[in-house]
């Protein structure tokens, strides 16, 4: 049986509240779980001490038993110091989408046309003045 430490959603519509639970990975997200390990209230400010609460002894027990935390729970555990920090590489983070790339090339073409038009009249009077 593969165990996961994951979030189980509670709360009403647009007011999320999560329980941190140890559950069998085959069970539904909000379904049956073995043990409740803590809570996560994302509506609270990031520096609020009640935003994430965990029973670290029980979390460590489940980690020792082979439970795998989900990505979000792993980040919470890293912040709490229960897990070593992983190096993550989001290679597509700074890359714009297709539409943004198209807009950028179109804008660059327009700017090049404007620059070329601005430079052409400035050069013509200078050439005439040099000829005289």
UniProtKB/TrEMBL annotation:
It holds the Pfam family Ribosomal_S16. InterPro entries: Ribosomal_bS16 (IPR000307), Ribosomal_bS16_dom_sf (IPR023803). GO terms for cellular component: cytoplasm; small ribosomal subunit. The keyword Ligase does not apply. Keywords: Ribonucleoprotein, Ribosomal protein. Residues 84-109 have a biased composition (Basic and acidic residues). GO terms for molecular function: structural constituent of ribosome. Residues 110-124 have a biased composition (Low complexity). Residues 81-132 are annotated as: Disordered. It comes from the Bacteria. GO terms for biological process: translation. Belongs to the bacterial ribosomal protein bS16 family. PANTHER family: 30S RIBOSOMAL PROTEIN S16, SMALL RIBOSOMAL SUBUNIT PROTEIN BS16M. This is Small ribosomal subunit protein bS16. It comes from Loktanella salsilacus. The lineage of its organism: Bacteria, Pseudomonadati, Pseudomonadota, Alphaproteobacteria, Rhodobacterales.
């Amino acid at each position: 049986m593969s165990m996961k430490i994951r979030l189980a959603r509670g709360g009403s519509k647009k007011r999320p509240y999560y329980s941190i639970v140890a559950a069998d990975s085959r069970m539904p997200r909000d379904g049956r779980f073995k043990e409740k390990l803590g809570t996560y209230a994302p509506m609270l400010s990031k520096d609020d001490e009640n935003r994430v609460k965990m029973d670290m002894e029980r979390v460590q027990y489940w980690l020792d038993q082979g439970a795998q935390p989900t990505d979000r729970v792993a980040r919470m555990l890293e912040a709490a110091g229960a897990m070593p920090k992983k190096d993550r590489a989001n290679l597509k983070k700074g890359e714009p989408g297709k539409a943004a790339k198209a807009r950028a090339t179109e804008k660059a073409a327009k700017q090049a046309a404007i620059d070329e038009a601005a430079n052409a009249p400035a050069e013509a009077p200078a050439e005439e003045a040099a000829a005289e």
